[in-house]
Amino acid sequence: MTISALRVDGLHFAYPDGTPVLHGVDLTLAPGERVALLGPNGAGKTTLVLHLNGILHGGAGTIEVAGARVDPSDRAGLAEIRRRVGIVFQDPDDQLFMPTVAEDVAFGPQNLGVRGDELSSRVDEALAAVGMSEHRDQVPHHLSFGQRRRVAVATVLAMRPEILVLDEPSSNLDPASRRELAEILEPLPVTVLMVTHDLPYALQLCPRAVILDAGRIVADGPTPGLLADEALLHAHRLELPFGFDPAAMTPGRRAG
């Protein structure tokens, strides 16, 4: 039997003030699958994502990564989960704080005890994957926003995760940077969960999509079908760009 890359069963969560956010979320991702997590603001998407490696916890339900349960009380196990599940946050400045690009990319593996040639190899590999090798000695905050987003992806790739979680990866990118990031993400050999309001980007990169609204999964299916359902999108406050036809574009193909 194939073990799921990610399995979320009956996940509930409320914030300390009692505000409920998640109401029994069930979600399974197969190894190598690319899934878009869609939903309006306040749906619980970020709250769900922060549960995947134990940043948030405390509600009913279970989460398993490659068959290993996310248990915040197991510090050694949680460290391994956080290696397996890499989260790239919406604002790259939340992940970049070292003097140079290379030091930022090396930070995570170093914390895992990686040293010497292995560390250098990971840094080189991650920077090459995002097309930032020539910027390794630069100060991260001197880079453009799009370049910083790519370096943020590299900091996670250097950990060699099995699941890559992307929080609004296309936000605040100009069209060229948006396209370049898609070209980086498409060939990565990892399971991807992409949180986005950018529905064409979801269609381009993710064959499957789920819609989360009011803390519940309300739809789960092939991305083209979900985006073609105008009533479904309207019911959950999701909108395609004016004139965009999802039938004219299939997952894995860029808009011409």
What does this structure look like?
By secondary structure, the chain is α/β, with parallel strands linked by helices. It has a single domain, classed as P-loop containing nucleotide triphosphate hydrolases (Rossmann fold, 3-Layer(aba) Sandwich). The chain has helices spanning 45-51, 75-84, 101-111, 116-129, 145-157, 175-185, 199-205, 223-228, 230-235; strands at 6-14, 20-29, 34-38, 62-65, 68-69, 85-88, 163-167, 191-195, 208-213, 216-222. The strands form two sheets. The chain has a six-stranded mixed sheet with strand order 6-7-8-3-9-10, sandwiched between helices. Strands 2-1-4-5 form a four-stranded antiparallel sheet, with helices on one face. Helix 3 runs parallel beside helix 5. The radius of gyration is 18 Å and the shape is globular. The N and C termini lie far apart (40 Å). It is a peripheral membrane protein.
How would you concisely characterize the structure shown here?
One of its GO terms (biological process) is cobalt ion transport. The protein has 256 residues and is α/β, with parallel strands linked by helices. 33% of the residues lie in helices and 22% in strands.
Using the coordinates shown, work out and report the CATH topology: Rossmann fold
Terminal Cα separation, in Å? 40 Å
Strand-and-helix sequence, N→C?
Answer: EEEHEEHEHHHEHEHEEHH
Total domains, how many? 1
| Cα Rg | 18 Å
Strand content: 15-25%
Helix proportion range: 25-40%
Low-confidence stretches: none
Strands of the largest sheet, in order across it?
6-7-8-3-9-10
CATH superfamily: P-loop containing nucleotide triphosphate hydrolases
What's the CATH architecture? 3-Layer(aba) Sandwich
Task: Specify the overall morphology.
Answer: globular
Number of strands: 10
